[in-house]
Amino acid sequence: MDIKSAGTALKTGRRSELWNPELDDTLVCIGVHQETHDVKTFTFASADHRSFVFDAGQYFLFDFEIDDAVESRCYSISSSPQRGNAFSVTVKRVAGGKVSNWLHDNLAAGARVKANGPLGRFVRNDRPGSRFMLLSGGSGITPMMSMLRDMADTCEDADVVFLHAARTPRDLIFRGELAGLAEKIKGLRLHFLPEDRTGELSWPGLSGRISSDYLRLAVPDIAGRIVMCCGPAPFMAAARSIVGELGVPASNYVEESFDSAVIDETVEAPSEPAGARTFSVTFSKQGRTIDVTEEQTVLSCARKAGIRIPSSCANGICGTCKSKLLSGSVDMQHNGGIRQREIDAGLFLPCCSRPLTDLVIER
């Protein structure tokens, strides 16, 4: 545990033992709440009654046992870090989504699940005088809710504009609570932007998609704000382009996404450098063998060859691509997405690993 985490625990006055990300991995679901017609919030506590220390904006990597297989997914924390006895994640049911549908249909209070965290760097900086623009689309609202709930719990003197976009008014997650938070957090300006008014034709505000014209009117001082964005990949691509047009420097734009579409995207493998050693990498369950040089990551080459490996961040943070290495050795440069005891058990992250020998991977 780092000094910052220990200090946070002391400031919040927690007396119970703290959750240790290196050792603890079992959570118990203690509550399920229906937020909208297709969104549920799941609340978890430590199976060993430990308290959690995390920053608003972080996430947990969950391992769910579904149909005799382990499915890994990252879910951002939506609850306040000031309430460390438990934490919540909020999940939207995705059409055809294996894990989200299983969670909505099966996970109930009392169920135990495995998880690793807290993880992630999508957190607000603590520089005095910073002004923020929080921008979310769909279920990308979850880390933003953790931040806003944290501000409310700490009575922070904040200067924050929050814009949440959704398909329709009934898809606006936390709509009622956000209205209450806007009353409590005096420096919070709240904007809702449904794409259309279906189901609520009397919607009093604008509707449509985010645009430079809309943001220019809604947030005229956006160029002087730190913009934090989370949502589906197309939403974030549009936001990134728009705020750049409006003068937000790249250094003041931060984004986070665990869009399920990432699993199916092609990761471009770097070209093979002249003289680099080449190793064979076999995926035992899929019956495929490919060549990977010592300068290429296993994940990038696997994707280029059409081999399916779930992934999200592609840089060793989230742990979604975690796999069993049956034989061989790799050079793995991760950023916290795997525990030492998991490495000792033969697991590795293909996204940030380059082969040192021929490999056999249980995928």
UniProtKB/TrEMBL annotation:
<keyword id="KW-0001">2Fe-2S</keyword>
<dbReference type="InterPro" id="IPR017938">
    <property type="entry name" value="Riboflavin_synthase-like_b-brl"/>
</dbReference>
<dbReference type="InterPro" id="IPR001041">
    <property type="entry name" value="2Fe-2S_ferredoxin-type"/>
</dbReference>
<keyword id="KW-0560">Oxidoreductase</keyword>
<feature type="domain" description="FAD-binding FR-type">
    <location>
        <begin position="22"/>
        <end position="125"/>
    </location>
</feature>
<protein>
    <submittedName>
        <fullName>Hybrid-cluster NAD(P)-dependent oxidoreductase</fullName>
    </submittedName>
</protein>
<dbReference type="InterPro" id="IPR006058">
    <property type="entry name" value="2Fe2S_fd_BS"/>
</dbReference>
<dbReference type="Pfam" id="PF00111">
    <property type="entry name" value="Fer2"/>
</dbReference>
<dbReference type="InterPro" id="IPR008333">
    <property type="entry name" value="Cbr1-like_FAD-bd_dom"/>
</dbReference>
<dbReference type="InterPro" id="IPR001709">
    <property type="entry name" value="Flavoprot_Pyr_Nucl_cyt_Rdtase"/>
</dbReference>
<dbReference type="Pfam" id="PF00970">
    <property type="entry name" value="FAD_binding_6"/>
</dbReference>
<comment type="similarity">
    <text>In the N-terminal section; belongs to the FAD-binding oxidoreductase type 6 family.</text>
</comment>
<dbReference type="Pfam" id="PF00175">
    <property type="entry name" value="NAD_binding_1"/>
</dbReference>
<dbReference type="InterPro" id="IPR050415">
    <property type="entry name" value="MRET"/>
</dbReference>
<dbReference type="GO" id="GO:0046872">
    <property type="term" value="F:metal ion binding"/>
</dbReference>
<dbReference type="GO" id="GO:0016491">
    <property type="term" value="F:oxidoreductase activity"/>
</dbReference>
<keyword id="KW-0274">FAD</keyword>
<dbReference type="GO" id="GO:0051537">
    <property type="term" value="F:2 iron, 2 sulfur cluster binding"/>
</dbReference>
<keyword id="KW-0411">Iron-sulfur</keyword>
<keyword id="KW-0285">Flavoprotein</keyword>
<dbReference type="InterPro" id="IPR039261">
    <property type="entry name" value="FNR_nucleotide-bd"/>
</dbReference>
<feature type="domain" description="2Fe-2S ferredoxin-type">
    <location>
        <begin position="279"/>
        <end position="363"/>
    </location>
</feature>
<dbReference type="InterPro" id="IPR001433">
    <property type="entry name" value="OxRdtase_FAD/NAD-bd"/>
</dbReference>
<keyword id="KW-0479">Metal-binding</keyword>
<dbReference type="InterPro" id="IPR017927">
    <property type="entry name" value="FAD-bd_FR_type"/>
</dbReference>
<dbReference type="InterPro" id="IPR036010">
    <property type="entry name" value="2Fe-2S_ferredoxin-like_sf"/>
</dbReference>
<keyword id="KW-0408">Iron</keyword>
<dbReference type="InterPro" id="IPR012675">
    <property type="entry name" value="Beta-grasp_dom_sf"/>
</dbReference>
